[in-house]
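Input record, target 12 of the design panel.
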């Protein structure tokens, strides 16, 4: 076991910790490992010290010819897959390894106080715990911090997908789930921010018409573009095209849909006190271009501002609150650019005594509390920290209403490789069907079919011009299926393909053709 302290931008060499029973110590730093039945907890004391990373190492050669699967820091980017041994591969949060009829799994429980990733090589397994505060070492002072709970399991004679779901249940003890299946509309992938209250009312009428359930009505989510500043706050009112957000929500409910709304809580063009602004390279760059201010959630006034914004949106009557961009706003990187180092070195939050993971958790808890009875959907959020707090999670990067290849890559991949988290961490949203004339219906029809029968949330961005009699018939059938509880779809060929075409959907096997213009079989009711 090693501890690292990187107060400057240049990483320091690790310090080996010596073991005395369940305690590992060096130079005033102490890590306590408390073993249990198939799990261990890690606690850290470092009074007066700066610490950045903790490295645990288990020696031993893994069996040959195993395949490995890991998760992602936040959303996935069409890049999740089972692969052979890659020593440099970063495996955030947990990983599985499978060979013949046994699947092995190692991970940390959700809600950890550190950002954790695994690596596997020919000589053993490493677990790295990132304890930094932003891009510099944290100063815990006199606190004893419960860093993480480690879990290890082996599953014999069940499918790798079943093993993955069982393990995710082990990692999240108390998921917060929607009472009923979530489905409906979202206007982003045909409007792309150019919309109005009148158009949302029309969207709501169409979405309501396609749904036949009287006990589980569909949602209509208003995405970016309703607020005065595109992609940014303040979130106190709508713009000229959205003059009364509370009235719009009431109108939507009267039409027969549940209203939903998009926000970006940590980025605003409203002038705020300099002390409220995040002091990171990315935040300073955005401010320098006059794009707006990134807010530091460790400033108490900022967290109260976030609370007030979410309470206001819920008070307007929006029953689903989709909050977006916070991982990028906080760390200045998208998940595909993070790897082992999640942010630029050398900067920290206003409160330097907490780890980044602790800060993110406090931010998420504030949103959860402020949302009240409204559902919370995290997008560009860290799923392993949002589990147990958010009812829904956007688990992949954006699909598209313009480019089928993007929908196929991002949507199919995230549904296949994160379906294990559905109703074990939260309800997973693999993103929308962008139903427009720019994407062939023969292709979109398959994505609609798969989502509708997968048991996961279904959102459709349907341009009015793209919905004819055939599309409307399929949408009605899809909404009928999505409104009911179904078994989670299982990708049958996920060991050999990053975009599986063979699926087990309920009691049926389905074959999809993602790569030709004609597409596969239509929806089966």
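The sequence produced for target 12 reads:
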């Amino acid at each position: 076991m090693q501890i690292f302290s990187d107060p400057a931008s240049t990483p320091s060499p690790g310090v080996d910790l010596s073991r005395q029973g369940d305690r590992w110590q060096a130079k005033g730093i102490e890590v306590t490992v408390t073993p249990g039945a198939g799990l261990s907890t890690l606690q850290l004391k470092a009074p007066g010290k700066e610490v950045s990373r903790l490295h645990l190492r288990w020696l031993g050669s893994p069996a040959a010819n195993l395949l490995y699967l890991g998760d992602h820091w936040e959303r996935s980017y069409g890049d999740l897959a089972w692969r052979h041994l890659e020593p440099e591969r970063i495996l955030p949060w947990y990983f599985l390894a499978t060979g013949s009829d046994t699947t092995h799994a190692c991970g940390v429980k959700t809600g950890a106080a550190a950002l954790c990733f695994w690596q596997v090589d020919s000589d053993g397994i490493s677990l790295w715990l990132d304890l930094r505060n932003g891009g510099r070492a944290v100063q815990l002072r006199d606190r004893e911090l419960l860093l993480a709970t480690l879990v290890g399991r082996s599953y014999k004679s069940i499918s790798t997908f079943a093993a993955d779901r069982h393990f995710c249940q082990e990692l999240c003890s108390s998921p917060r789930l929607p009472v009923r299946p979530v489905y409906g509309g979202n206007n982003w992938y045909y409007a792309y921010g150019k919309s109005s209250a009148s158009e949302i009312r029309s969207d709501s009428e169409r979405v309501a018409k396609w749904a036949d359930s009287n006990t589980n009505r569909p949602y209509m989510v208003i995405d970016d573009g309703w607020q005065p500043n595109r992609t940014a706050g303040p979130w106190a009112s709508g713009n000229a095209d959205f003059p009364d957000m509370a009235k719009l929500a009431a109108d939507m409910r009267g039409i027969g849909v549940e209203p939903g709304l998009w926000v970006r809580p940590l980025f605003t063009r409203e002038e705020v006190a300099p002390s409220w602004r995040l002091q990171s390279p990315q935040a300073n760059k955005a401010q320098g271009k006059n794009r707006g201010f990134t807010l530091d959630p460790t400033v108490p006034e900022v967290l109260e501002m976030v609370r007030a914004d979410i309470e206001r949106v819920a008070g307007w009557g929006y029953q689903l609150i989709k909050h977006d961009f916070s991982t990028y706003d906080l760390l200045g990187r998208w998940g595909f650019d993070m790897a082992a180092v999640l942010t630029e070195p050398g900067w920290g939050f206003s409160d330097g005594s907490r780890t980044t993971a602790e800060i993110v958790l406090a931010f998420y808890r504030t949103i959860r509390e402020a949302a009240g009875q409204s559902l919370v959907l995290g997008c560009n959020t860290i799923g392993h920290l949002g589990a147990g707090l958010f009812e829904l999670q956007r688990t992949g990067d954006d699909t598209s209403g313009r480019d089928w290849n993007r929908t196929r890559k991002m949507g199919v991949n995230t549904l296949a490789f994160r379906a294990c988290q559905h109703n074990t961490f939260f309800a997973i949203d693999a993103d929308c069907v962008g139903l427009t004339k720019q994407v062939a219906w023969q292709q979109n029809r398959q994505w609609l079919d798969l989502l509708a029968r997968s048991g996961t949330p279904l959102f459709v961005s349907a341009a009015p011009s793209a919905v004819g009699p055939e599309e409307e018939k399929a949408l009605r059938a899809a909404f009928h299926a999505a409104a009911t509880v179904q078994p989670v779809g299982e990708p049958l060929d996920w060991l050999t393909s990053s975009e599986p075409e063979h699926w087990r959907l309920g009691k049926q096997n389905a074959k999809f053709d993602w790569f030709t213009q004609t597409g596969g079989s239509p929806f089966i009711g």
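The CA atoms of residues 57 and 519 lie 48 Å apart.
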